[in-house]
Amino acid sequence: xxxxxxxxxxxxxxxxxxxxxxxxxxxxxxxxxxxxxxxxxxxxxxxxxxxxxxxxxxxxxxxxxxxxxxxxxxxxxxxxxxxxxxxxxxxxxxxxxxxxxxxxxxxxxxxxxxxxxxxxxxxxxxxxxxxxxxxxxxxxxxxxxxxxxxxxxxxxxxxxxxxxxxxxxxxxxxxxxxxxxxxxxxxxxxxxxxxxxxxxxxxxxxxxxxxxxxxxxxxxxxxxxxxxxxxxxxxxxxxxxxxxxxxxxxxxxxxxxxxxxxxxxxxxxxxxxxxxxxxxxxxxxxxxxxxxxxxxxxxxxxxxxxxxxxxxxxxxxxxxxxxx
Amino acid sequence: xxxxxxxxxxxxxxxxxxxxxxxxxxxxxxxxxxxxxxxxxxxxxxxxxxxxxxxxxxxxxxxxxxxxxxxxxxxxxxxxxxxxxxxxxxxxxxxxxxxxxxxxxxxxxxxxxxxxxxxxxxxxxxxxxxxxxxxxxxxxxxxxxxxxxxxxxxxxxxxxxxxxxxxxxxxxxxxxxxxxxxxxxxxxxxxxxxxxxxxxxxxxxxxxxxxxxxxxxxxxxxxxxxxxxxxxxxxxxxxxxxxxxxxxxxxxxxxxxxxxxxxxxx
Lengths: 324, 266
Prior knowledge:
Number of helices of chain A: 9
Distance between the termini of chain B: 64 Å
Strand order of the largest sheet of chain A: 7-11-6-1-4-5-12
CATH superfamily of chain B: HUPs
Radius of gyration of chain A: 22 Å
Helix content of chain A: 25-40%
Mean pLDDT of chain B: 95
Order of helices and strands of chain A: EEEHEHEHEHEEEEEEEEHEHEHEHEH
Order of helices and strands of chain B: EEEHEHEHEHEEEEHEEEH
Number of strands of chain B: 13
Oligomer: heterodimer
Radius of gyration of chain B: 21 Å
CATH architecture of chain B: 3-Layer(aba) Sandwich
């Protein structure tokens, strides 16, 4: 097998998610080639670092002002041309916002199915088939699917929390510059605004403090959760009930239809634990729950459950953690 | 001045009937699937898509000439079309599959939608659909459709403004860590994210009216699409059980457990 791995980067740094995708690609048991696109400044700033990533034998790069802002309509033609009469057996990326916009578009154009959000994989070279596991129903079931040999180029995106990020290797990948494919894109970039919060991004944070309907209103939600989140360097999340009630912004919703998170620590405060909420957080490493109701379903998944009034418990937790 | 007919928009909203989001999923002991004899409803992201199409008409009035909803699924999927019609869509297209047929893959669905679009007497300008279905969680169909058609695409939309005169749309997208705004020429495929809107509940009179709205039926073969899955599903299993249920008696104990897990203040 020979995998083409789409490597995303930001300000001269390869995205950790792409490094996880590379690890998944090397698990196929063959070669891995990286692909980097951007404008020439972006590509130059990341190339030196990228060629030293462990597991990469070749690094293809293409630079064009068109690739400065990642728009699937402009990047797709390049991938399509790279796949024409190519040695690549797999196309791999992180399950990131950009890659999941790009890869299905490319896959459809080369008439190939795609396996999304895989958590493990195994390639059988003798039958040229690859078997993947992936969560379905928001992780409430796990599907094992096989891409048979009839699929010439097997596309998949990778759940990055399931694979370790590739580190720096001892050798350097060979560099190969390819010409960009300039297209008259029907879509143009207007602006990108990345949240300038001091808090980590909810989806990738290693610690999450979430609040539910017990928080009463938006002001109390913020006043209660923020100090604890600040203390732990955590992102803030919310249950659907809290979002529906207007206590927290939609973007903070953790659950089946919101964000699916798997941090080191998930603290559920005043969250009862509806099925659709559990679907969004039950892969967290350590789940801590504080709830007044001893029968709340959240306690069934919590590693550390405290039956208490959160308005008394949370300030006390803050106070005692500060003393340590 | 009345808008000329060339400027009128035709909108298509593909929808999917899924196991309701509040149902507890049970994996069948034969590991071939999950228990489907439970409450189903429209995929929540598709409800947002229908709502957006109806709101677009609210804003642009007569400039939105038609809102069609389309589904691919067994006979019962017609109920989902009726729900969308009750929310305000004008007519439906049902690509009917046998009750026991396996779920087609996103690529097949995209091909069916493309073929349906090409069958329309008037060109479709805008497809609005959910960013993913909450059953297979694939999140591919919209992008695949845009790729097959060679159209612009705007995934994970949280705001859509259509300029029908110039046939462009300004779309705000939810990306990792923030928002991105893109300007897309129509025709366009938009996929919806949670923040786009809050779907309405259909009123009883509208539910009654929806019963009379027309639904066209097709077989996949009428559209020239083979829907046989290419990927082979080996098994469906339960996720590893989480062993929780440990309670502590006090905040002191809770803080001690956090400390033992290496979690301290930053």
